[in-house]
Design goal:
mainly alpha
């Protein structure tokens, strides 16, 4: 049992390090996707493609011209949430394994 717990803790350590990296990369991808959306929006305005007479029309024009960029932002947000959930699950598994270590120590 002791050796199995050591193996599990070692594997968890590696998994948590990897999951932290995934969260970081997913957060960077989200920032990049949001930057791309802003650049597209700014370009549409500068190029005169957003020319509606009122805010509602301009908003609709912006929405129609940024579908791909907004989908990229949504995908990046989903990836970040998934990476966070994976990390959270690994941290929960670590807490459970550490509790088992305490139980084994009490028995030994």
């Amino acid at each position: 049992m002791r050796e199995q717990l050591i193996v599990e803790l070692t594997a968890l350590k590696q998994s948590i390090v990897a999951a932290n990296s995934e969260v970081y990369l997913a957060a960077r991808e989200l920032v990049n996707a949001k930057d791309e959306l802003r650049l597209t929006e700014n370009s549409l305005i500068v190029d005169g493609l957003i020319d509606g007479k009122n805010a509602e029309i301009r908003s609709a024009q912006m929405y129609a011209n940024t579908v791909v960029d907004r989908q990229n932002v949504a995908d990046a947000e989903d990836s970040l949430e998934s990476a966070k959930m994976t990390l959270n699950n690994l941290q929960t598994e670590l807490r459970i394994t550490l509790a088992l270590v305490e139980l084994v120590k009490g028995v030994a």
